[in-house]
């Protein structure tokens, strides 16, 4: 059997094909701003939080709206908004909404202790943890003769990270002398005992160990004993630590937006990643006071803090 098709004049055929192609290209994508909405909840109005939000907005394909949760408000207010996804910035906000199970949640600027890592499948995010290998590489670059690194930590917060770091450092030829502390009782005596066994003291974002009181004592101890501190935030380098690796809040927001767009487009598996952009800061002033010679090359590549 021969099937015959109606004759269509060439000009009309070209017109039909053109209209069809325009319709295809004009059709909204699954994650276009016209079809998806993200609700943002922030913990504070601090600059890092604002930078994360700016990075998210610059990359996200969705309409992004901020909602403020007052004390006592939580997941019910978010459900009523009926967003496609909730983006949470900071630990305080995350604790308010992490129980949300019926909407996808993406987080940033959140330090997750080991006791809270059993997250629901609907929760994705960019962790605050810089991989141990990045720390080790930076330490070797700044302090090439270092063989022993000290660390104080709380097992309930950072045991899994410290275990990974111990393996990484050992493979890199550096001993990690990690001392567990469930509280700050005996902090001074523990640090004094550790001093003779290490070349550098590594300070992690462990909320049980890093408090205003302990940070003040650590920095004073560091200066008195010429013990350099390698930490996780430039703000501590500005007040006495020798070096730090900082995450980039803007790029964390951009990473979170990329994750959010994939989830809204249909990805089912949660995505939890480390920050992909970090910055090394060095205090040449603190290093010079301790008689530490910083190699010229890393000093040129980093943020030098006076």
Descriptive report:
By secondary structure, this protein is α/β, with parallel strands linked by helices. The protein has two domains: 37-128 and 248-277, Rossmann fold (3-Layer(aba) Sandwich), CATH 3.40.50; 132-247 and 279-305, 3-Layer(aba) Sandwich (Rossmann fold), CATH 3.40.50. It contains twelve helices and 13 strands.
Question: How is the secondary structure organized here?
Answer:
Layout: H1 10-26, E1 37-42, H2 47-59, E2 63-66, H3 75-81, E3 85-89, H4 91-97, E4 105-110, E5 123-127, H5 132-142, E6 148-153, H6 155-171, E7 175-180, H7 187-195, E8 200-202, H8 212-224, E9 229-231, H9 234-237, E10 243-247, H10 249-264, E11 272-273, E12 278-283, H11 284-289, H12 296-301, E13 303-305
Parallel strand pairs: 1-2, 1-3, 3-4, 4-5, 5-11, 6-7, 6-8, 8-9, 9-10, 12-13
Antiparallel strand pairs: 10-12
Helix pairs in contact: 2-10
Question: Outline of this structure?
Answer:
This protein has 306 residues and is an alpha/beta fold.
pLDDT averaged over residues: 84
CATH architectural type of the largest domain: 3-Layer(aba) Sandwich
Low-confidence stretches: 1-8, 13-33
Q: Let me know the number of strands.
A: 13
Q: What structural class do helix, strand and pairing data support?
A: alpha/beta
* Percent in strands: 15-25%
Distance between the termini: 87 Å
Task: Provide the CATH topology of the largest domain.
Answer: Rossmann fold
Helix content: 40-55%
Run of helices and strands = HEHEHEHEEHEHEHEHEHEHEEHHE
Helix count from the secondary structure assignment? 12
Major sheet: arrangement of strands: 7-6-8-9-10-12-13
Number of individual domains: 2
Rg over alpha carbons: 25 Å
Overall form: elongated
Could you describe the largest sheet, including whether it forms a barrel? 7 strands, mixed
The CATH class designation of the largest domain is: Alpha Beta
Q: Could you give me the name of the CATH homologous superfamily of the largest domain?
A: Response regulator
């Amino acid at each position: 059997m021969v099937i015959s098709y109606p004759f269509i004049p060439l000009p009309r055929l070209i017109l039909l094909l053109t209209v069809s192609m325009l319709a295809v290209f004009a059709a909204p994508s699954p994650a276009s701003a016209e079809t998806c909405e993200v609700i943002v909840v922030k913990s504070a109005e601090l600059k890092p939080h604002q930078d994360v939000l700016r990075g998210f907005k610059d990359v996200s394909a969705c309409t992004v709206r901020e909602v403020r949760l007052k004390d006592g408000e939580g997941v019910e207010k978010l459900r009523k908004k009926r967003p496609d996804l909730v983006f949470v910035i900071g630990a305080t906000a995350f604790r308010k909404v992490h129980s949300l199970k019926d909407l996808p949640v993406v987080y940033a600027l959140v330090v997750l202790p080991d006791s809270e890592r059993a997250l629901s499948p609907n929760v994705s995010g960019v962790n605050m943890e810089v991989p141990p290998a990045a720390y080790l590489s930076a330490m070797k670059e700044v302090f090439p003769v270092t063989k022993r690194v000290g660390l104080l930590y709380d097992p309930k917060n950072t045991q899994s990270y410290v275990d990974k770091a111990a393996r990484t450092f050992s493979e890199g030829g550096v001993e990690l002398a990690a001392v567990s502390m469930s509280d700050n009782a005996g902090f001074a005596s523990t640090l004094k005992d550790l001093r003779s066994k290490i070349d550098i003291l590594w300070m992690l974002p462990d909320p049980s160990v890093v408090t205003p009181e302990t940070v003040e004592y650590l920095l004073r101890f560091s200066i008195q004993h010429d013990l350099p501190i390698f930490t996780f935030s430039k703000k501590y380098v500005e007040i006495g630590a020798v070096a730090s690796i900082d995450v980039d809040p803007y790029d964390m927001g951009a990473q979170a937006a990329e994750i959010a767009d994939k989830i809204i487009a249909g990805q089912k598996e949660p995505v939890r990643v480390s920050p992909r952009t970090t910055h090394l800061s060095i205090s040449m002033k603190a290093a010079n006071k301790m008689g530490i010679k910083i190699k010229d090359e890393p000093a040129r590549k980093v943020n030098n803090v006076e």
